């Protein structure tokens, strides 16, 4: 089940990163400030990085341990919170009604992504020794 989740979210995040990247580069280019466009692009980059990670781990981990399931969850939820909160902040700010409640969501998503990477590292060490 976790393998399918990893593949599903990897493919979904990858697809959406392409769509959002094109949307940002073309439709939003003249509507956002340079700083807002940079923030939007950061969300797209991190989303794509983690889409690729989800696909790679789906082919390399068995997900037969709780640790592997938790790191998968950290990557999926972290990507959702990090990238999508950036999109919400940028788009709402550009429309004049910034959704400030999303401000604390972005670092929480980043923290989950960092935890996912640490757990992946720990998983490698655990399997190596």
Any descriptors?
elongated; mainly alpha; membrane; 82% helix; transmembrane helix; 129 residues; DUF423
Tell me what the structure shows.
With 129 residues, the chain is mainly alpha-helical. The protein has one domain. It is built from four helices and no strands. α1 runs parallel beside α3 and α3 runs antiparallel to α4. The protein is elongated. It starts with a helix and ends with a helix. The mean pLDDT is 95.
Short description:
82% of the residues lie in helices and 0% in strands.
Strand content: under 5%
Distance between the termini: 27 Å
The number of helices is 4
* Helical fraction: over 70%
Integer-rounded radius of gyration? 16 Å
Question: How many beta strands in the DSSP annotation?
Answer: 0
Instruction: Indicate the structural class.
Output: mainly alpha
Taken together, the total number of domains comes to 1
Largest pleated sheet: none
Low-confidence stretches: none
Shape: elongated
Mean pLDDT: 95
Compile the SSE list and pairings.
Elements: H1 2-27, H2 34-60, H3 66-94, H4 105-128
Helix pairs in contact: 1-2, 1-3, 2-3, 3-4
